[in-house]
Amino acid sequence: MPKTTSPAQTPDLESGVDAAVDAAPKRNRRGRPGYDRETLINKATEVFVTRGYDGTSMDTVARELGITKSAIYHHVKSKEELLHLAINRGIRALDSAVEAESQRPGLDALERLRAAVHASVVILIEYHHSVTLLLRVRGNSAVEVEALEQRRKIDDKIRVLVAAAIEEGGLRSDFTPGLITRLLFGMVNSITEWYRPSYPVDPERIADAVTSMAFNGLEV
């Protein structure tokens, strides 16, 4: 995994810009925006989604953010490291949500599966750009291969829940666990194609709609 610079060792980007201006008081202040590391990752993720990762250079990222390329390198060493950080946000959130719901005590497998799917929809919306980026990787680099492997692990956790729900009699058994998992997440992942922050429906309501529509045709 690429090494990242700890926030404690990294000067704040905006403070660095201000210090440079103070050192040369006769120069005009242009009001160039500064970005801390988290904001940089957020903004870069949006650029990667909009323009495509392969078609986006670090010069493009810098230009889109209105900062210098050297300012970006205060926080990351390369475009690939920036991709790793961008994708990992969505992966970590999805994995944590699925893991938590799949292990909830006092629920049968079907209830835990429904909860995991519901949570996945909410996370996908909350980390919309990061998850969209994750779904677009094709294994063209070490970072993308790692992301695909993490995505497969999440799919496997859902598949285990599906198999358990079938075994317990909660889901119909004429479909395989693998097929049901693909159908469920085909519906969930399709949200990245049409959802926008301005969409006039609360994320929880969207998650309710997805789980209701998905399981009404799957439950026994």
From TrEMBL:
Keyword Chaperone carried by entry = no
Q: Which GO terms describe its molecular function?
A: DNA-binding transcription factor activity; transcription cis-regulatory region binding
Q: Which residues form the HTH tetR-type domain?
A: 34-94
Listed Gene3D superfamilies: Homeodomain-like, Tetracycline Repressor, domain 2
Q: Does the keyword Endoplasmic reticulum apply?
A: no
Spell out the protein name for this chain. Answer: TetR/AcrR family transcriptional regulator
Source organism phylogeny: Bacteria, Bacillati, Actinomycetota, Actinomycetes, Micrococcales
Which SUPFAM superfamilies would you find in this protein's record? Homeodomain-like, Tetracyclin repressor-like, C-terminal domain
